[in-house]
């Protein structure tokens, strides 16, 4: 079996107004120290930036993206290749993203454990997670893929899955209620794709029922609900936002040990 390698990444956000402090994801940079490469992926749907920024300047945005590609695309050889002399170091991405502090800024660097044969799939899934609306509907990330990325982040932090030893199974399906259990922490991944509202409602109802029917058993756990980032990109008036708010509100009436956050904030909550 292949040896695990690290896939590091950082999401690029655009914040045109520092007073409003609203931002959108416009890119993601990847780095694999063991394979000595890095690459920047930019958003292709420029209309999302245009609709977000009243003073959108296409030439300025294009210039910034060219600069990112120059800084991070290690497969492009030129006369300034010394900028990649630390490409095989763990700190390469942290060192080279920390200087972006104005309209364009990178989120803290995150890491997942991957394998040489799956690293391309993992970069593709992360791209679909953080640049959600750049993909056709049929290619957008689903619950199973969110779950897979979540488990790989847990693996990087050496968190062992104890699900098989605990037997918290759902009624009627004999499936585990949670995707991952470690110590007193339980994790559940959910995709809030706006095109699966009917299935989503049923999924949340079943999950809520399973929690309520085992309220005493799960009272010792901190329960983390991890959702894909596209929910944060949807309007506050969207059906999915309403479903999510009602879901969390109802759970909070019955439980005081449930926390929900997007996949992008998952790593910082398990450190």
UniProtKB/TrEMBL annotation:
It holds the Pfam family DUF3037. It comes from the Bacteria. This is DUF3037 domain-containing protein. It comes from Enterococcus dongliensis.
